[in-house]
Amino acid sequence: MGQCGCSGDLNIAALASRQKRTLLWVMMINFATFGLMVTGSLLSGSSALLSGTLDNLGDASAYLVSLAVVSASARAKAWAALFKSALIGLAAVAVLGQLLVKGPEPPVPIVGIMAAAALANLIANSACLVLLTPHRRDDVNMASVWECSRNDVFEGVGVLLTAGLVFLTGSTYPDLIVAVILLALFSRSAFTLGRNALSQMRQQPA
């Protein structure tokens, strides 16, 4: 009896279903965390926390795009990855703008609020990374969202450590330094994702 390819189609459909379920969870977590981080950054005055806030919003939007192209063509997934690289780049620009507006002598962040928001953000980001890790090699779409989530965990650890340094030193400079480091991290990820997406697009027929 000839091979009809039904088994392969079923496997692809099952994979797409698992990807959609995972992306839906991480999208909801990021939208919820964004609300928490907005409140925390406004109340504490932390630049590093603001960078996490913008990143959460960008990631939630990126996951929404990823969810839309789970069953799409490889070229559509590459376009989605390119869009996500642009979102990360915009987050980097927003952090840079906020640092410039604050000037060289910004007020010291309120450590208690900053630390509480940063800890909640780290827990949420870690949960997202755990959910996405089994899918990180599925395709360029899932690889890009996993990269976003991994950056979130680094950012969460950095902001939490920053809160401790601000408390110990009584200075705003640890907050500014970490914000600059996160700015560099976002910029690097935007470049990497954009390059990979463009490479994938060149390999696919128009």
Salient structural properties:
single chain, mainly alpha, Alpha-lytic protease prodomain-like, 6 helices, disordered N terminus
Describe this structure in words.
This protein has a single domain, classed as Alpha-lytic protease prodomain-like. 84% of the residues lie in helices and 0% in strands. It has 6 helices and no strands. α2 runs antiparallel to α5 (140-169), α2 (47-68) runs parallel beside α6 and α4 packs antiparallel against α5 (140-169). Mean pLDDT is 77; it is low at 1-10.
Question: How helix-rich are the residues, as a percent range?
Answer: over 70%
Helix-strand pattern:
HHHHHH
**What do we call the CATH topology?**
Alpha-lytic protease prodomain-like
What summary fits the major beta sheet?
none
Rg (C-alpha, Å) = 19 Å
